[in-house]
Design a protein that fits this description.
alpha+beta, nine-stranded mixed β-sheet, five-stranded mixed β-sheet, 19 helices, 51 strands
Length: 916
């Protein structure tokens, strides 16, 4: 979009800078999520200070891009500040980290001190008050903490809610900074002096009547900036919100009065709507007062001082942080995309910036990943093999919502036809998902969804579906419950089964993570009877669950009848892994049910907002399909044969986005090209063959048995998006399954956490592609031992809090070495083994052939992985299926590179198979 003509004249009067190079990609030493500008050398010019996904804090020259120093914190950086607090003319850096530490780093890159808490710190700010500098920090433990320049605690103010935002500024024009703190629900406090004397409190951000959160009465702030917008000496407060408030913006005066509100915010339909608005005030135009420069995902906005949009550019990369560099012309710095790239962006706000931002292309690591995926795509298309006849069809759910009229339902049919044409393979089908609700609450249940404007009377739903999906032959899944609440009655469900015998694939329920009694009421009084109906009519029932649900709920004795195999032909496990800190546990639980015979099929599901670990941040806009591709591939390699795509996979050409269009104009979205565009052809050509349980060759011979979960672990494993209070005991810290609650998102895993040493996970997030160096470990309900292919012998039982072993109760730390030794020893019996950091699964494929997939496990930190594959003696040849090249074996081993953000497909063949 071009800046309006009036802006063109203003820009030209501001600077005569040429348009070329106004938006520049700047190489940095990692994936920079936080950026600051500060003079660390004392030469009078600012340097770029940034903190990376892997925990490095770096200082870099702006003119030469020379990295002056880096300090490794070892933990994800939630926030970064840089300021001279020692009055020596050189800025120190302060990093608030997911390990609960505030790191103070000298101007030379040396650690000065740390302040340690027991849970992640979310914010850090520097205030100048009482004649000196003070450092403020806070986070999950709900304390606002004031520290002297040497790290001594000068004040601590406890709060009832998470300390989400902290900023310092002169709010009353008295020449000294005040400290403004805002909770994750929008309560605001103002403090004065280093002893943090409260001068102001309000909760005027609640209640609200706009946006998705209106029913809850919450306006959630994700960003705060204190700016003197009108040059009166006192700062105003600018706030940016996220998806649940339409990415809105608000401005408050220093006395707490709302100056203006942009409740409509910014609405996107390109896969970046799970984001939040960040904004700074700066002089961009000659007009009086400051303008606002804002980012949201991949968009850079110029707004006037009242939040009105003046210009916007939509880039290929996206941005996690923004920093203003005043000057003539002014410059904004934008932090890296949340996908592993190694660039930040420098935008000079002169005429032509919009075009230059929109012209940015991937460089560095992301250019490498994109090239890897493009090469694989071309190789897959060129492959001429055929899929084996497995007697089943793989199904993709590619479109959906809550369409409540015939026209709205039929609007999805063109999408199904589009995918049928894209992937004309006999072994694949494409379906839509339809959430359906009746207007009245189902008797016996409390319905928080009552009054939904798209509800359809129960007697009308079967007719609606029969006249559309059934008449046109469009397969569909019917979503009929959420949060242990049914949306339709069993009578309506049976009527739908009768009306749609050919096209109804399954019913689905979502996110049922309530307490045992609430869940039991739902399962026993609604879901089990529904599964009985599904069996009667030959349909299935999909359970889409999150957090650590699939290792806890099946282990509850009361729910055993659902998961012990009695409903294996009906019950289909799936996940909602957004806001999950432990997806590797959920994955292990689903594979265990598949191996034990508890389920015959399961779903590989990916969703846009799974790049999220709690509801305090919205950074779910990677602008690349590589994380979603590898997640789906790893699950298919473990046996998933149904695929749910809740990410953008189809779209329209840019020139048609705001014009009349039809399904014939549809194209694959860039995410779609890099995800379903690859997997659809892999499945169709038989390169990717989801294995049956007895074909999985790289599952550990050992198993961890989940006993009836301890109540405290069950509660922690099901705590969802947020926590109302933070408590942390020594027993929880020592648990073999520590850190699964939402407030541990991005925290480093402790060495005794099962996911750390059995699945190679270093942080409580993003563990969707576990490396599993000892073979993929199963976490199975205790009653499943000996069922199907789950080993009968088990030395390791846990209730989620301790291991029970040889009559003793052992903490995770006490058991770690013996558990590790047991799994490592058992791995020696596996026919195929891998050394190195990569996901590997080997699957039997006919006589004398084994299909092997190797996947880069770096969900948001992709990298080339140097690995060594060990194969059994009977393997005569090893072939790269995509390139067709043989891979040399030396003493039964092959050294390989798994490309960044991608995968390799190999086939091991015996001499007999080669002869065939």
């Amino acid at each position: 979009m071009r800046a309006p003509m009036i802006l063109t004249a203003l820009f030209l009067s501001l600077s005569s800078a040429a348009a070329d190079g106004l938006a520049q990609a700047v190489p940095v030493a990692g994936n920079a999520w936080q950026i600051e500008l500060a003079d660390v050398t004392g030469d009078g010019s600012d340097e770029l200070v940034y903190a990376t996904y892997d925990g490095r804090v770096c200082a870099q020259r702006i003119d030469t891009n020379e990295v002056l120093w880096e300090y490794q914190t070892g933990s994800f950086p939630y926030d970064l500040a840089a300021a001279d607090v020692t009055d020596d003319g050189r800025a120190e850096a302060f990093c608030a980290s997911a390990d609960g530490k505030l790191y103070a780093i000298s101007a030379d890159g040396a650690l000065l001190w740390t302040h340690e808490t027991v849970a992640p710190l979310y914010q850090v700010a520097v205030a100048h008050m009482d004649g000196g500098a003070r450092v403020l920090t806070g986070g999950v433990t709900r304390d606002l903490i004031c520290l002297a320049p040497d790290g001594r605690v000068q004040a601590r103010v406890p709060h009832e809610r998470v300390v989400r935002l902290i900023e310092a500024g002169d709010t009353d024009a008295d020449g000294e900074d005040e400290v403004v703190m805002v909770s994750h629900l929008g309560d605001r406090w103002v403090y004065e002096g280093p002893d943090l004397q409260q001068s102001y409190f309000d909760n005027t951000m609640r209640p609200v009547s706009d946006g998705v959160e209106a029913a809850r009465g919450i306006w959630r702030p994700y960003w705060m900036s204190l700016e003197d917008m009108d040059a009166d000496g006192a700062t105003e407060m600018l706030l940016g919100s996220g998806f649940y408030n339409a990415n809105g913006i608000r401005a408050y005066d220093n006395d707490g009065a709302l100056l203006w509100d942009r409740p409509a915010g910014f609405t996107f339909r390109d896969g970046t709507h799970y984001s939040h608005t960040e904004l700074v005030g700066m002089d961009v135009l000659p007009a009086p007062g400051k303008e606002i420069v804002a980012i949201n995902a991949r968009r850079l906005f110029l707004l006037d001082g009242e939040g009105n949009e003046l210009a916007v550019a939509a880039a290929l990369p996206s941005f996690t942080d923004i920093e203003a560099q005043p000057g003539t012309p002014p410059v904004v710095w934008l932090a890296s995309s949340p996908n592993g790239e190694d660039r930040v962006y420098r935008v000079t706000m002169s005429e032509g910036w919009v075009e230059d931002v929109e012209g940015l292309q991937w460089e560095g690591r992301m250019a490498e990943v994109t090239a890897n995926l493009d090469r694989i795509y071309r190789q897959v298309l060129a492959y001429e093999g055929e899929a084996p006849d497995r007697g089943e069809q793989y199904m993709h759910f590619v479109s959906g919502g809550q369409p409540e009229t015939p026209d709205k339902i039929r609007a999805h049919f063109g999408v199904i036809d589009f995918y049928r044409k894209q992937f004309p393979y006999d072994n694949q089908r494409f379906a839509m998902s339809i959430n359906m609700m009746e207007p009245e609450t189902v008797p016996g249940f409390t319905d928080r969804y009552a009054g939904n404007p798209r509800a359809v009377p129960g007697e009308e739903l079967p007719k609606l579906l029969a006249e559309t999906c059934e008449a046109d032959g469009i397969p569909f899944v019917a979503g009929i419950g959420h949060s242990s609440t049914p949306w339709i009655t069993l009578q309506t469900a049976e009527a739908i089964l009768e009306a749609c015998p050919n096209t109804l694939v399954a019913f689905a329920t979502y996110e049922d993570e309530q307490d045992v009694e609430t869940l039991a009421h739902y399962l026993e009084d609604f879901w089990i009877p529904l599964m009985d109906l599904c069996r009667q009519y030959g349909k299935q029932a999909i359970m889409v669950e999150k957090a650590a649900w699939w290792i806890t709920t099946p282990a509850v004795e009361r729910f055993k009848p659902i998961f012990d195999g009695g409903y294996a032909d009906v019950m289909v496990p799936s996940v909602e892994d957004s806001n999950s800190r432990s997806p590797e546990l959920n994955l292990s639980g689903r594979v265990a049910l598949y191996m034990s015979g508890g389920a015959q099929r399961w779903v590989a599901r990916t969703i846009s907002d799974e790049l999220c670990w709690n509801r305090y941040f919205e950074w779910e806009f990677p602008q690349s399909g590589h994380p979603f591709l590898r997640r789906q591939l790893s699950q298919a390699a473990l046996g998933a044969s149904l695929f749910r795509w809740n990410i953008p996979t189809h779209t329209y050409p840019p020139e048609l986005q705001f014009a009349a269009k039809s399904p014939e104009d549809m194209i694959l979205h860039p995410f779609g090209e890099e995800t379903i565009g690859i997997i659809g052809h892999l499945l169709g050509k038989g390169l990717l063959v989801p294995p049956k349980p007895d074909e999985l060759l790289n599952v550990s011979p050992r198993v961890i048995a989940m006993e009836e979960p301890a109540p405290e672990f069950y509660a922690e494993a099901h705590n969802g998006h947020g926590h109302r209070e933070f408590a942390w005991s020594d027993a929880q810290a020592a648990s073999p399954l520590e850190g699964v609650a939402c407030h541990w998102g991005m925290a480093p895993t402790r060495e005794h956490y099962i996911g750390s040493y059995l699945m190679g996970q270093q942080r409580h997030y993003g563990n969707f592609v576990p490396s599993a160096p000892w073979g993929f470990p199963l976490i199975a309900p205790e009653y499943a031992l000996g069922q199907g292919l789950v080993p009968r012998e088990c030395d390791w039982r846990t209730d989620g809090v301790v291991f029970h072993h040889d009559g003793e109760a052992l903490t995770g730390a006490e058991a770690r070495e013996e558990v590790l030794a047991d799994f490592a020893s058992a791995a020696e019996t596996l026919p195929f083994r891998l050394e190195g950091d990569a996901f590997m699964q080997a699957n039997r494929l006919g006589e004398g052939r084994v299909r092997i997939i190797l996947i880069d496990p770096g969900f948001l930190d992709p990298a080339d992985r140097d690995v060594t594959l060990h194969v059994p003696d009977e393997v005569a040849t090893l072939v790269d299926l995509l390139s067709g090249e043989p891979i040399g074996l030396e003493n039964g081993s092959a050294r390989l590179i798994v490309p960044a953000g991608a995968f390799r497909l190999l086939e091991a063949r015996t001499a007999t198979a080669d002869g065939d």
